[in-house]
Amino acid sequence: MDEKKDFVMVTVSGPDQPGITSSFSRILVDNQVEIVDIEQASLQDFLGLSFLLDMSGAKQSKDGVLKDLLFEASRLRLTLNFRLFSEKEMKARNSKNLFILTYFGQTQALAEISNILAEENANIEMISNLTRHCAMCVELTINVNQAKNLSRLKSRVLAKSHELNIDLALQKMEAYRKNKRLVFFDMDSTLVDMEIIDEMAKRAGVFKEVSRITEKAMRGDIDFEESLTQRVALLKGLKVEELEKIRGDMKLSEGAEDLVDTLKRLGFKLGLVSGGFDYFSDFLREKLGLDFSYANQLEIKNGALTGKVLGKIVDNTYKAKIVNLVSSEQGILLDQTVAIGDGANDVLMLGQAGLGIAYNAKEKLERAANMSLGRARLKNILYILGISEEEMGDWSVCERPI
Ligand SMILES: [Mg+2]
Questions:
Q1: CATH classification of 182-195+251-369 is 3.30.390.50, yes or no?
Q2: Strands 98-104 vs 137-143: parallel, antiparallel or unpaired
Q3: What distance in angstroms lies between residue 188's CA and the mean position of ligand 1's atoms?
Q4: What is the CATH number assigned to the segment(s) 7-92?
Q5: Cα torsion for 4, 82, 38, 92, to the nearest 10°?
Q6: Which of 37, 46, 147, 259 is 20 to 30 A from 322, comparing alpha carbons?
Q7: Distance 360 CA to ligand 1 centre (A)
Q8: How far apart are CA 361 and CA 356, in angstroms?
Q9: 188 catalytic, yes or no?
Q10: Is the pLDDT of residue 14 over 90?
Q11: Is 97-177 a CATH 3.90.550.10 domain?
Q12: pLDDT reading at 401 higher than 60
């Protein structure tokens, strides 16, 4: 026996005018038809309106209701299409595995991203524009129920950010829907546009030696703790006056101060989690009015570095632990946290946070992140957090407003 098809998807489209939704919903009320899903979009003067209707309790036959709707559409000079569904088909449609893909780019970005999605058998359910005067920041709702290989899809999409030099985020719908409240910043090459230890090494006259150890650590020959201990030992004797000069010359990344100010104004809690040094992170915390900072503690005696680090070394694992600790202390879910970093020792922290942002980072880090963000484009984080352009002030992303 054929399944009963009591659900009808109705789509009307055409020139927009006031009163369209009202006319159609009046017919539905009069016929005791329930709307179980609805979506309307208007672009310029063109309208697209979709209803998913449950006709099981309708006063007259399905055909009768559809005839009324078709008549109304023709009176309003709109096109109407419909499709029937059974309850079983409806249930299959409702168990969706959804992701939100946000990109900052133009037509080429859409062409290439949608091509990957098609090849990976992921369906775009909805497209919306987050920018007011240009389509620079576009958000796609993607259904990955039928996707061939989700992790390949993710890495292919994120790889596009490098290839096209655009910013891009891919988040699970559940995490995306949670309002973010807590932001963790890495310090070196993220909040500040420099590697402070390099500057210290230059002033201590050991730049080459320090760089050699850094390279070893980057190749994975020694771990972070070992490399930090060795490098700090080389800095022994560096005077506090030199540290003060570096502190005075510290340059924030482009957009960092505005980003911090905006987030603070909107009530976010913000802090630094750095594999660098407290002498600098504490200073930044005070200067920018951040809520907390964690970093390695330099031992200073008689006005100079002793070459030792006190307490626990803040490395990859410890950074992730801090994300956990601070969020639970604040009573904030991990899905409500954001972590931003650029380096290998940010991998776990980015993976831990609800939204992990790889900032001007290597592809390896991007794989652990939800978002790939280019240098000097920190402001784009605000769009990803759902902050409106009004709240951003005149800080809009549009390059070519229409
Ligand atoms: Mg860094």
A1: no
A2: antiparallel
A3: 4
A4: 3.30.70.260
A5: 40
A6: 259
A7: 10
A8: 12
A9: yes
A10: yes
A11: no
A12: no
